[in-house]
What does this fold into?
Amino acid sequence: MQQRFRDAFFGISRLLAGRNGTDKLSIFLFILSLIINMVNSFIRAWQPSLLLSALSFTLFAFAVFRTFSKNIQKRRLENFKFENLLKLLYLDKLLSKIVYSAKNFSLRIRYFKTHRFRTCPNCKKLLRLTKKRGKREFSCPTCGHKVKVRIWL
Ligand SMILES: [Zn+2]
It folds into this structure.
């Protein structure tokens, strides 16, 4: 099961060669689509519900299209405009945080079998540790801060 999952993951990264891949705009569209879907599950009236389903699906489809698009220049320009808009609305820092944790999450899944992740309390860098149970102390490779960790599982 695990092996098959990993094969699928690497299969996807091979598939993405020469494509745009996931950028901020696509991640934003994916998350927005998910939120609309969740909100929609609480709506009973079928007409607004249908409208929201269509909207959620359109956003999702556009995000998928952007990820696999070969017109990288055009997609980069879209993403650039989107980031400028965020700056205008003072939302750029918030979205960066969300994208950062989404990427962390995918790293955690990717290395689930062999590694665990912790953040350095001093410089906030993400540290990848070998999966070895128990307490450990080491210096952060970026800032040299002594980090104590305990890995349970
Ligand atoms: Zn550090």
In short: The chain has a mean pLDDT of 88. The helical segments are 2-15, 24-40, 46-68, 72-88, 92-110.
